[in-house]
Amino acid sequence: MALDRTAGFDMLVQISENELNNQLATAFLAGGIFPPSISVPVNAGGVSGSADLNFDTPVADLDRPRPRMGLTVPFSNSQLQITAPLALTVAPIGGAITVVDSIAMVTEGSNQFATMDFNAGAPTVNVAFDPASVSLLEPLLDVAGLSLTQAQNMMAGVVLDQLQSSIGRIDLTPAIPVVDDTDATTVFDIDVTTVNDTTALDRDCLAFGVRMSSDGGGNINNVTSSLIPAGSQSLVTMSNFWLLARVMRPRIASSMGRPVTDFDTPLRLNRSIPAPGGQGTLRSLEARVVANRISVTGRATDSGSGWSAESNFSFFIDIGLDAGAITVTATTPVVDTDVDLAWWVWLASLGLGGLFGGIVGVIIAAVVLAIVEAVAEGIADGLISDGISGAIGGLPAIPLGPIGGGLTLSSIVLDDLELRSSIVRSVSVPVKHQGGNVGLGGFSVDLDSGALSAGVLPGTDLAWNPASGLNAVGGSGLTVTGTSFGALTPVQISRLPLATSQMSLGLIPLTWPRWFLFMPHHEVVFGMRTSEGRLAKLRAWRQIDQQGALHLDWITFDTPTPSLDIAARWSVTERGEVTDYIAKDCSRCRSSPVRWCGVFEAWPRLTAFPVDYEWCLCGQTLEQGDGKVKSAAGIITYRLEGRRLKIATEMGQLFKCELCVSAIDARGLELYTCIQLNQPGIERRCRPCKPTRKDVSVNLLPVAAELAYWRPLLPREPLVEVDPIG
To answer: Which of 86, 300, 425, 712 gets the most CB atoms within 10 Å of its CB?
Structure first.
């Protein structure tokens, strides 16, 4: 049998660092795995304020002591706002946060999953500002009495607190069902580690050791190298021992009506047994993996009056792939039969050898059928969900990364059973809008909605001018790429600068249509960030046979977009005379006139800082600093400081109106939101009353049947019993 490459596990799964990052990036753009932004209070080292961080695509690296993984989260267009000991706002700032933590398998109920649990030990967090931010920060931090190192450590502390309190963990696999049963094709337990390849190839990977039963072996510390084939992103390999001993052995024993103990592991008959078909004896049977095939050899004997025979047979089982489907085939058996005849039997017949040959055929047919069914049912049906549908197969019960949902098989290597494949993602970035337009004259398009117009309207992202080219407007940006339109992914677009605002006419090819087979077709492909913050891919060309009309196709992905919320907190600052009373429902109540204080804060997310805020209260625009607003109920005083607003009511004043805030970010994107304010001038608080006596109980006695004999009686028990008041 070939050498064991699974470190003793029934199955070994490896996911390359590149595939891990592609899955993380896809999940991030789809709005999962890691938040796209955080806005958190800062209170450390005598410094208070807030930090608004807009994150870019996170990047994992496995160049760490096992089983630790690094996660670098770049941030840009962000802001650090200090309120004490000195009012100070620094924007825009950018840099990167690096989190290093261990990866472990966690069990919850009947599921296991791999995770970075930020509360299971202390992750290492480092923050580094980029050079442009350092140049902006240093002179301002000097005024506040802070060093750059202090500022970075302060930010690291804030991020660590958020990781532990708000995010908690990052799961690197979906929940994987585990079960302790006798089925060799269900997962019992999973171990995980990282492989840091220090060679020039840098083939780092996540490695998962999978046991299919409670008596399964394996040591994850023995997985020290990446076995992923060149050009692949993953490896799924199943041990030869598991295939022969756990999958095939019990099925062959069952097909022959024998206990599994008649066969040693991995698959060898340890005693003579009656041959299938009821004739002859099966003396030996063994299966092993040889040269990427399952080799089956055996020996059977039979005898009768005056004759005996011995037959040796062999054949091979091949596992392959045909149009994406797993195939299991057996070669034609080779049979060598030796018949020993007494002289009188030989004289009677020269064809007795054919009798035994038929028996051997029955034996071989039974063994071939059992092995084919064992492999086909145990692997193709047991491990691959719903079999293979077209070119897509799935191995749902094994870890395939954060959003790995199945495999597209490309080839199969039997030693150990290696499924060479690419991973199918269970999550993709949804499409917001897809469309196209052909125009000889100028036009504009809103890529978020697909709306077309002759001029540049609010929401317009791209404008076509036949004299000059394409222009990104409304805070959008573009980058030309050499990738084809079909191959360009949201992850690739997210890694482009997307900062160019114009594409000159000369960059847009003047070409023949795509369907014109005899002439070449050229087009320019580019990525964009829309005015609402979504990612889009586009292609454009000018068509020769249409007088240079522009052809524009686009797909806009529904990635997370900027938003604006208002956080509100109310408190009573002064209370008037208190009145106690009993309500109609017997509740004990207390009322008093009050003076309210409301504190409000605008929380923009995914906006480019600095942000300009404008507040409106009761239909009146507020000025920065202290001021007053006339409402229907009286005068409201306020203090406005950028994104924070504080208002105060008069004693006993009913306050009911609308509060709105507008935020315009550094890219010119405007966000707007409102909330309704409704604070009573009289605060009432009630609590249900508690009964002070028991309920009255009534005993009903039967009336005499004959009323003619009625007379007053002194009953032994009163008709109405009133319990004493408790």
So the answer is: 300
